[in-house]
From TrEMBL:
PANTHER family associated with the record: PHOTOSYSTEM I IRON-SULFUR CENTER (PTHR24960:SF79), PHOTOSYSTEM I IRON-SULFUR CENTER-RELATED (PTHR24960)
Protein known as: Ferredoxin
Entry GO MF terms: 4 iron, 4 sulfur cluster binding; metal ion binding
Keywords: 4Fe-4S, Electron transport, Iron, Iron-sulfur, Metal-binding, Transport
Pfam families in alphabetical order: Fer4_7
Domain 4Fe-4S ferredoxin-type: 1-29, 31-64
Any one Gene Ontology cellular component term annotated for this protein: cytoplasm
Cofactor needs: [4Fe-4S] cluster
Stretches that traverse the bilayer: none
Alphabetical list of InterPro entries matching this protein: 4Fe4S_Fe-S-bd (IPR017896), 4Fe4S_Fe_S_CS (IPR017900), PSI_iron-sulfur_center (IPR050157), YfhL-like (IPR047927)
SUPFAM superfamilies in UniProt: 4Fe-4S ferredoxins (SSF54862)
Length: 83
């Protein structure tokens, strides 16, 4: 499942550069995660790097975009041109 950033975000700017898929960008008020680009770092890292660095724990699993580990792996392969 892709991730999302809730309204607890303090715009600290640490998550955006950690995303290997460039899925994080500044929204109208807080950072947002593009579910079409988020793989929860599958294929890159063992854990989502944005969640690792977030000082306020405002990055959560997005129940509106449920994806299996295999689906996330396939998305990673598509995004990196490996399929």
């Amino acid at each position: 499942m892709s991730l999302f950033i809730n309204d607890q975000c303090i715009n600290c700017d640490v998550c955006e550069p950690e995303c290997p898929n460039n899925a994080i960008s500044m929204g109208p008020q807080i950072y947002v995660i593009d579910p079409d680009l988020c793989t929860e770092c599958v294929g890159h890292y063992d854990t989502p790097q944005c969640m690792e660095v977030c000082p306020v724990d405002c990055i959560l699993s997005n129940p509106d975009h449920a994806e299996s580990p295999e689906t996330l792996k396939q998305k990673f392969l598509r995004l990196t041109g490996q399929c």
